[in-house]
Amino acid sequence: MSAESINRDQVENALKTIADPETGRPLSQLDQIRDVSVEGNDVDVSIALTSYSAPLWEDTRQHVTEHLQSSLPGNRKVKVDIVPLDRPAEPIGGIGLTAKSVIAVGSGKGGVGKSTVAVSLACGLQKAGCKVGLLDADVYGPSVPHLLGVTERPTATEKKLQPIDVQGLKMMSMGLLVPPGEAVVWRGPMLHGAITQFLRDTNWGDLDYLIIDMPPGTGDISLTLSQLIPLTGAVVVCTPQDVALLDAVKAIAMFNKVNIPILGVVENMSYFLCPDNGKRYDIFGSGGARRKAEELGVPFLGEVPIQIAIRERGDAGDSFGNFADQDAAPHFERICYSLTKNLAMQKASNPPLPSLSVL
Ligand SMILES: Nc1ncnc2c1ncn2[C@@H]1O[C@H](COP(=O)(O)OP(=O)(O)OP(=O)(O)O)[C@@H](O)[C@H]1O
């Protein structure tokens, strides 16, 4: 029996409720529905999406496919293609920085894996197809160059520092300007000046995300940052034991104090799967950060187990390698995905937009 015939208008109508994951606005309003064709039972659609939402492209493709299948009459064969759309970032904060989202990664105390998570977020978003910068603002212990295996000093051109390119990721760190092993004593105004310079005088180019690895605990840099640029928000990294969670709560309170929204909590060193017998050991307890996040009403972005290979790759400067390892990659990918998905949902639910069916 032949299916009831439909036309392009019906397909375009059905697409009106679909939001762009970057802006939260209807794809149809932003001219992001590129091709719609109906031939017999086949419905082919192509949608243009920006690199900002690259981790969500597959999600969007699936969502649009299912949405069309359920809202069009008959049992249609729907094919959705995603094509890239270039929409450059706008300058923010009056300091010449062009980035769509600026995300601080902080922790209540040192040694919980904050830099590992910040670097992994940057690498993961970069690998997914986003344009990413990574600023190591942990001036007391800049470990980002070590985690990315960078030793060269940045060059300067036209009064701008050229960030180091690591597989397309743009990185800048105080650790690149100070000889290794040399201690830097920072006073408040110097710190303020250094961060301002790193943001303003680095040739970041057009970024989807600038990830900032914050120093642990202190409020100084958060305050400086919140005064300089509108931060999208902060990710707080912690380990599962009670005493570490107390520090995480303090970090959340500190970000709240300077009006930086909390985008989520990441639990690092969640458990250890013994490679010899496959047994799981909850070395620092289990699930504490997830429970704390729920209690505080902030999103939980994911957990990362203790893996010897994660430490080894960190020491070898091969943080990108975690994404080629089937044991490590899913954890870091999940965190990148949750973060971008939460950002997309926030955008879509923000008034004055009509509520749309996102993802
Ligand atoms: N999930 C993990 N499994 C194994 N090792 C890890 C894990 N997360 C972090 N590490 C290791 O722990 C050490 C500390 O990590 P990292 O430098 O990221 O912590 P941090 O919180 O940024 O510390 P600091 O604030 O002192 O810079 C590093 O050697 C890192 O490779």
From TrEMBL:
Binding site for ATP: G108, K109, G110, G111, V112, G113, K114, S115
Any GO MF annotation of the entry: metal ion binding
MIP18 family-like domain ranges (all copies): 8-81
Entry's Gene Ontology BP terms: iron-sulfur cluster assembly
PROSITE patterns from the UniProt entry: MRP
Superkingdom to which the source organism belongs: Bacteria
Keywords for the protein's UniProt record, in alphabetical order: ATP-binding, Hydrolase, Iron, Iron-sulfur, Metal-binding, Nucleotide-binding
Subunit structure comment from the entry: Homodimer.
PANTHER family: IRON-SULFUR PROTEIN NUBPL (PTHR42961)
Family as reported in the entry's similarity comment: In the C-terminal section; belongs to the Mrp/NBP35 ATP-binding proteins family. Belongs to the Mrp/NBP35 ATP-binding proteins family.
Record's function text: Binds and transfers iron-sulfur (Fe-S) clusters to target apoproteins. Can hydrolyze ATP.
Name under which the protein is recorded: Iron-sulfur cluster carrier protein
Native species: Bythopirellula goksoeyrii
Name of the gene this protein is made from: ylxH_2
